[in-house]
Design brief:
This protein is α/β, with parallel strands linked by helices and 220 residues long. The protein has five helices and five strands. It has helices spanning 15-39, 121-134, 149-160, 177-181, 205-219; strands at 58-62, 71-77, 107-112, 137-147, 167-171. The longest helix is centred in the first third of the chain and has 25 residues, at 15-39. The chain is globular, with a radius of gyration of 32 Å. It starts with 14 loop residues before the first helix and ends with a helix.
Length: 220
């Protein structure tokens, strides 16, 4: 019986050549994003469509009786503690507590923000417009105010629709960079800002910053 002898030869590979081969092997993967972009289609278009949405919000409206003409409207947005489905809560810390001090007939509108949400200003705006249709409201005397989270809603709604309000009064309100960036929207709108210096829930710096940017705008 004969034996088959085999001999294995090992060839030493230059590390530089091996590294170059690895790079070349990965080249198709590196070029893949470029090939995908070359195959993409760029589309320029315009969305022009009316979208319908269901509006639902509870509210309290105090409307004076036995008045002949149109009456002014005060819109009040409550803070986070009054959210939910108990409408009696929206009267706390609101114009309802001092309405007897107002000498002329005035309507007071206080919507209620649902639990675990913040103010949907689109819904609030549509509510105000609906109240205008149903009741005799003086369109030139609609006033907006809000407390804490409602103060934020006051800034936001006034920024979106400054033409709707005769004046606004945010109270201890949070503010964000979007409001400061759109400060020109407040240029012709009478504003009175209230904020306690010892507020440990919403920092007074929010109101100070808004005051400063609005003041700077008016001085231009």
């Amino acid at each position: 019986m004969s034996k088959l002898k085999t001999q294995t030869k090992f060839t030493k590979i230059n590390p530089k050549i091996l590294k170059m081969k690895l790079k070349l092997n990965h080249l198709p993967i590196l070029l893949l994003p470029f090939s995908l972009s070359l195959n993409a289609q760029e589309i320029k278009a315009e969305l022009n469509k009316e979208f319908k949405r269901q509006e639902k919000i509870s509210y309290v409206l105090d409307y004076p009786q036995k008045v002949k003409g149109n009456v002014p409207l005060i819109v009040f947005l409550h803070g986070s503690g009054e959210r939910g489905n108990n409408l009696e809560m929206v009267k706390a810390h609101s114009p309802f507590t001092y309405k007897n001090l107002i000498k002329e007939p005035v309507a007071i509108l206080a919507p209620q923000c649902p639990e675990n949400t913040w103010w949907d200003t689109v819904t609030v705006y549509n509510l105000i417009k609906e109240i205008q249709k149903k009741y005799k409201i003086d369109a030139s005397r609609i006033y907006l105010t809000g407390l804490s989270m409602g103060g934020w809603g006051t800034w936001k709604l006034a920024m979106e629709h400054p033409e709707l309000f005769a004046a606004v009064a945010p109270v201890c309100a949070p503010a964000d960079i979007m409001m400061e960036a759109n400060v020109d929207r407040f240029k012709n709108l009478p504003i009175k800002i209230f904020h306690g210096g010892n507020d440990d829930i919403v920092s007074p710096i929010n109101s100070i910053n808004m005051y400063q940017v609005i003041k700077k705008l008016i001085q231009l």
